[in-house]
């Protein structure tokens, strides 16, 4: 099984559109994982049918036993987030789950209880199985949820004998990205010709290098700023990273997204043609 993670270093570069197109071009020989759990959107393009829903618990919230509570006020005094009011009730939104209130309670009236922080799903699509998730608003530990999604997707791929695990990775360079990169055979980095695109590309390249994951680069909307495209290509050459493809600006990509389709199933325009060429290059590397 081959594991490919599509990353961007920053949001809005087009990695999800590219992932959906690759999934369509694979002709059902893969498992897809959406590891952008903070803002998942691959499901808009692949239209998964959910088979299983699982709770994700990554934090704890305090529960106060009012029969035991002596209302000494130590929990209120020590909570720096103001999450316990004068009636000794916990504000779930303000609480950070640090557990200090339970630690200082002299009568053990406070217990830390697991909290549902989101959900992960096992779904079917017309291109193959899909594992995805949704982290609730304001919740932390997205890296832990990404690791769960990635692990379940890898298990599904091995169990069903699929040839490819295709991962739509999260933006940035933090814990969720590291979790998505774990065990990957390669990373495809989608960038754009801009100063922020180049800046974040350098950062994600450093992460891939640190973890020993071979990377290649795809420049999306390469023709909107040709001079910066050349700068990115020179940087890639200096770093010894191949530029596997360039995708021109195509307004039909937006129309395809609004229609809930990958661009390669929407039309045969310039973006679709470029993506098909890139996919052929990806397949040639096997």
How would you sum up this structure in a few lines?
With 286 residues, this protein is α/β, with parallel strands linked by helices.
Describe the structure in your own words.
This protein has 286 residues and is an alpha/beta fold. It folds into two domains: 2-47 and 126-284, Rossmann fold (3-Layer(aba) Sandwich); 60-116, 2-Layer Sandwich (Alpha-Beta Plaits), CATH 3.30.70. Helix content is 37%, strand content 26%. The protein has eleven helices and nine strands. Strands 3-4-5-2-6-1-7-8-9 form a nine-stranded mixed β-sheet, sandwiched between helices. α1 (15-25) packs across α11 (270-284) and α5 (142-160) packs parallel to α6 (175-181). It is elongated, with a radius of gyration of 22 Å. The mean pLDDT is 93.
Sheet bearing the most strands, described? 9 strands, mixed
Helix count equals 11
Q: CATH architecture of the largest domain, please?
A: 3-Layer(aba) Sandwich
CATH superfamily of the largest domain: P-loop containing nucleotide triphosphate hydrolases
Strand order of the largest sheet: 3-4-5-2-6-1-7-8-9
Number of strands: 9
Number of domains: 2
CATH class of the largest domain: Alpha Beta
Please estimate the helix content: 25-40%
Order of helices and strands: EHEHEHHEEHEHEHEHEHHH
Shape call? elongated
List the helices and strands and how they pair.
Layout lengths: L1 E6 L7 H11 L4 E5 L8 H4 L2 E16 L9 H5 L21 H5 L5 E16 L2 E8 L6 H19 L3 E5 L6 H7 L4 E6 L3 H16 L4 E6 L5 H14 L3 E5 L4 H7 L4 H4 L3 H15 L2
Parallel strand pairs: 1-6, 1-7, 2-5, 2-6, 7-8, 8-9
Antiparallel strand pairs: 3-4, 4-5
